[in-house]
Design goal:
two-stranded antiparallel ribbon, three-stranded antiparallel beta sheet, mainly alpha
Length: 421
Amino acid sequence: MTEVLSDSKYLSPEAIFQRTSSEPDIFGTAIRQRTCSNASQLQYNRARERSRASFTNGERSRSPSPVGTSNGSDSEGQMVVDGSTLNESFNSEDFTFRDRAPTSPSREEVKAQAFERLQEELKKAQEELKLKDEECEKLSRVRNQLESELEELTASLFQEAHAMVRAANVKRAAAEKRFKEANNKVEVLQAEVSALKQLVLTSTSSQSHSRGMGWRRHSSEHLSPCPDCNSYDCDAAVTMRLDGTCLRGPQNGNNSPSDESEVDVILFREFLQWMDERSVSHDQPFLARIYKEDVGPCLDFPNKELALAVHSAIENNTLMMETFSGKPVFRKCALTGTSRFCLHRVKLSEKGEWYNLSRNSRVRIVAVCDFYTYVRYIQQGLVKADVTEIYWEVMRLRSEMALARLGMEGAVKVQRGSGHS
């Protein structure tokens, strides 16, 4: 049996297969032994020598034969026989040796083994790659999810910021609006205070005048005739003595007319009826007369549509008027259609547009606003004066509307520069 190659553990199967029998063992100390065919020839030679040696020893131990030829032939035959036996024994030993000797792998087997090993490595690499792909896909999904959440968070933050800015702007606009309205109310209240002061002064003078005239108080007596003169006109323009007796009695029926102011009887009765009703309807006779004779002509402008809108805004108490800041500018009046120095502008409602006003248009509108303001005070019970005093104040406001309509601005003392009707 041959020895295992000393360099087989350092070489791959292909390298072992490719080496020739004459290549030296560079890893060992001796020359590489022969392959199986050389080893069997050596074995054959050694067995033959052993057979010869045993045959020689046997001849020597035997006695010599008398017949040399026969002995020689027998010996030779014996040798032949021994030779054949030797050959047979060698052949059987040789076959046994060949069966026991290991055979080197072929090229196809080496390639098959290498292919299988590479397939296994490829399969492992594919499995690892698949795992890495799954991990990468998982990480990609996580990244996409984080990006989407970040975008949603950014969008929500921007929306909240815009909402906060919008709310702040709305609050600021509302605060500015309230501030402006408060300023307007302050101006209106200041104007009303001035008007009330003037009203108090006027009421005081009227009261002193009424004491000299001796008017009767508002009661149910105005529907009955005067007991002194038996006349219904005594309620209107008849003067009385300080003791309350009528100067138009029978004894004084032929006296001259008095120089004192007289009141229209029909108008005064309508006024008393309105004081009982405290209504602002156009169907009320007293107010209907004033609307027709004073308010309507005072607000009669070339721009009919805008004039009606101004009248409606005054009645609804929504008209706003303000003064232009800065130097006066030559503008076109919205009511008259003429170009004048417009120092004021008017707005019919909070969300309406502004209209430029000339001086005459403003004076006429302010006169109407004063009348409506006083009527509202009477309706709300804020005026605590006598009936006759209220009547004369209403007549004074009517005269202001007439003067404003005639363009006599100097006779009309407007108490406020701008305000709410």
